[in-house]
Amino acid sequence: MRRLLLVLLLASGTASAASAQPLAVPVVGMTVSDMERAVAFYTRVLSFRTISDVEVAGSAYEHLQGVFPARARVVRLRLGDEELELTEYLTPRGQPVPADSRSEDRWFQHVAVIVRDMDSAYAVLRRFHVEHASPEPQRLPDWNPNAGGIRAFYFKDPDRHTLEILWFPPGKGAAKWHRAGGPLFLGIDHTAIVAGSTDASLAFYRDLLGMRVAGESENYGPEQEHLNAVFGAHLRITALRAADGPGIELLEYLAPRDGRPYPADARPNDLLHWETTVAAPDIERAARALRAAGTPFVSAGPVTLTDSQLGFRRALLVRDPDGHAVRVVERR
């Protein structure tokens, strides 16, 4: 029924929030428990640099995030051309990442940091004693034409958010990842999210938000099992792109099908909370399209902040079909 509604709205020209003008993904963010510790990790281990550090509070921010009473410290970090946003809620404090989280659970999300040399990058992570999620870097097999030769490794940050370092062989990935020389850690290629249904997620990200499908792959075998730390892992992977910024990668587990749903009571101050920001040219039009499609809103609607210290003045927060948070900001 929801899919039929989207098709009818698209046919009438009212559903797409941003197809008239290109979208962008300016930043991906997460909630952390200790900002000093988190910033030290991302800047020392992964070579991000701090570009802003602000404190936010007040009614408008509370209505945007659906958290009351809220005061938060928000730090923006940059690596290459891409940005990561860390938010520490000074009040109220949220829940930790569930200790038994698995890669197939639908609250799973990570960012993929591209590296110039996998062995050197892995050595850096070992030197800083990062928590492994994969046993070691994995090379995806050549029988898989879209993923063959890619090397990847999952690990954890101090709050147990999963991260990935990724190396592209020649002929794969964006051209900028293959420039000669440069730093070891290059930038963020994408954020990956577990999707219960690729088709439902495409109805949201492609048909409603206006992103384009940039690639597809079906991954399985011992290398994928060890990368994700999931025995029998068999994934349908769909890469989505906007006009600018990191992509969004949908991970649908065809097997095993035992991933747990996003907790119904989760809030943005909880540490499992990730937030992907999408910039659209008209926030009111976006809100109308999202409401018409039955999208769950965290915000009551578009919120106007008192200043632009977060990089935008108007925004709303919604959840995708699996519960992942998407912040839509107005950028003219």
By DSSP (H or I, 4+ residues per run), the number of helices equals: 7
Low-confidence stretches: 1-15, 17-21
CATH topology of the domain at 109-255: 2,3-Dihydroxybiphenyl 1,2-Dioxygenase, domain 1
Top-tier CATH class of the domain at 109-255: Alpha Beta
In CATH, the homologous superfamily of the domain at 109-255 goes by the name 2,3-Dihydroxybiphenyl 1,2-Dioxygenase, domain 1
Give the termini separation: 33 Å
Rg calculated over all Cα atoms: 19 Å
How does this structure look, described?
The protein is 20% helix and 35% strand. The protein is an alpha+beta fold and 332 residues long. The protein has a domain at 109-255: 2,3-Dihydroxybiphenyl 1,2-Dioxygenase, domain 1, CATH 3.10.180.10. The strands form 2 sheets. Strands 5, 6, 7, 8, 9, 10, 11, 12 and 13 form a 9-stranded mixed β-sheet that branches. Helix 1 runs parallel beside helix 5 (198-208). The longest helix is centred in the N-terminal third of the chain and has 11 residues, at 2-12. The chain is globular. The relative contact order is 0.21. Residues 1-15 and 17-21 have low confidence and may be disordered.
Entry summary:
With 332 residues, the protein is α+β, with helices and mostly antiparallel strands. It has helices at residues 2-12, 35-44, 59-65, 118-127, 198-208, 222-228, 283-292; strands at residues 24-32, 49-57, 71-79, 82-91, 109-115, 131-132, 138-139, 151-156, 162-167, 185-194, 212-220, 234-241, 247-255, 274-280, 303-304, 314-319, 325-330. 20% of the residues lie in helices and 35% in strands.
